[in-house]
Amino acid sequence: MRVLVTGGAGYIGSHTLIELLAADHAPLVVDNFANSSPVALERVAQLTNRVFDHVEASITDTAAIRQVCDEFQPEAVIHFAGLKAVGESGQSPLTYYSTNVGGTIELLKAMDGCGCRRMIFSSSATVYGVADYLPFDEKHPLNPVNPYGRTKFFIEEIIRDWAATDPEKSAMLLRYFNPVGAHQSGRIGEDPNGIPDNLMPYIAQVAVGKRDQLTVFGDDYDTPDGTGVRDYIHVNDLASGHLAALDYAARHAGVEAVNLGTGKGHSVLEVIAAFEQAAGRPIPYTVGPRRPGDIASSHATAARAASLLGWQAGISLEQMCEDTWRWQSRNPEGYSD
Ligand code: UFG
After folding, report:
1. CB within 10 Å: which end of the chain, N or C, has fewer?
2. Which CATH number does 199-229+264-299+316-336 carry?
């Protein structure tokens, strides 16, 4: 299938490209490299021994996106591109709305212009907000608690309205839990700009000596060891989930929201212990105050992904840490090495 991949040079996009190429799909990447590197695309090409093109453009560039769609004639779009820092979204909400929401509208218009009727969208478990109950299933009320999360919520609604205009349109709203890990080659992985916001890349940078110590954000939550619990999912599992969603969308019209998680939660202290084991070195940490906006626990029920897509995540926390460590230790400066 000809698949347009927005944000294809990013962390999840690059891992999904490998799966797409392995399954003989024909991807075209659109990326403005705002938070990603063209080196990731070169490495995907090397790892797969396959050639594919990319266009350097923002999804907010209407003319560029229309031209890409008109020339490439995609049969499906996998839409990763967007801004994703929760804290920054509170400082610059309008930038988040114009890039994430505005960019998606331009993309959907361009898809209509070229007759493309399949959309696979990178949503987030953050659309659920504070848990009324756990595990989160897809029927849980949506109540995102920051502008980033609200962009994902609004985009889901916009895609539903877009899909309702044509009985042959199909859209998958993939709600990711906490993606971690890296390709087993150690050649591609997560390369955050500046100080990492997220736990796993922060631990990895402590392990490699780039940062002195980790701060554990609170140990007085109502969880077994007091630290926050999350559903960490290996990025390769997430990538294969996109392939399953693409197959499903090719066979079914309509819109489906699907959690992509493992169904199992791990605490911050469990992740630290698993990473110490994988890296063979201690991870110094101190316990600090809670981070504003954090919730105690978040994990998925993965039942819908299993029944609808025939997909489930299988890679262990140990493997997530080993693969993150391989990537980080071989590329201490990420793609700028
Ligand atoms: N944590 C620390 N220290 C750190 C970073 C994180 O103790 O330096 C803790 C957090 O308090 C939390 C856990 O580690 O308990 C995970 O935090 P992350 O920042 O890695 O992940 P979040 O669950 O907060 O958020 C992530 C993404 C969001 C996405 C959400 C989906 O950052 O974009 O998962 O549920 F929306």
Report:
1. C
2. 3.90.25.10
Give the pLDDT band (50/70/90) at residue 90: very high
Q: Is 148 a catalytic residue?
A: yes
pLDDT tens-digit map of 142-157? 999 999 999 999 999 9
**pLDDT of 154-209, one tens digit each?**
999 999 999 999 999 999 999 999 999 999 999 999 999 999 999 999 999 999 99
Q: Pocket residues for ligand 1 (CB within 6 Å)?
A: 84, 86, 124-126, 177-178, 197-199, 202, 214-217, 228, 230, 268, 291, 294, 298
How do residues 208-255 score in pLDDT, each as one tens digit? 999 999 999 999 999 999 999 999 999 999 999 999 999 999 999 999
Q: How far apart are CA 337 and CA 324, in angstroms?
A: 16
Q: Once rounded to an integer, what is the mean pLDDT over residues 79-100?
A: 96
Q: What is the pTM of this model?
A: 0.97
Which tokens go with 56?
A: 């350097």
**Sign of the Cα pseudo-torsion (293, 299, 303, 305, in order):** positive
Mutate to test the pocket of ligand 1, among 88, 156, 198, 262 (most ligand atoms within 8 A of CB): 198
SS3 content of the chain, % helix, strand, coil (to 5): 45, 20, 40
Query: In degrees rounded to 5, what are phi and psi of residue 180?
Result: -145, 180
Residue intervals of the chain classified under CATH 3.90.25.10 are 199-229+264-299+316-336
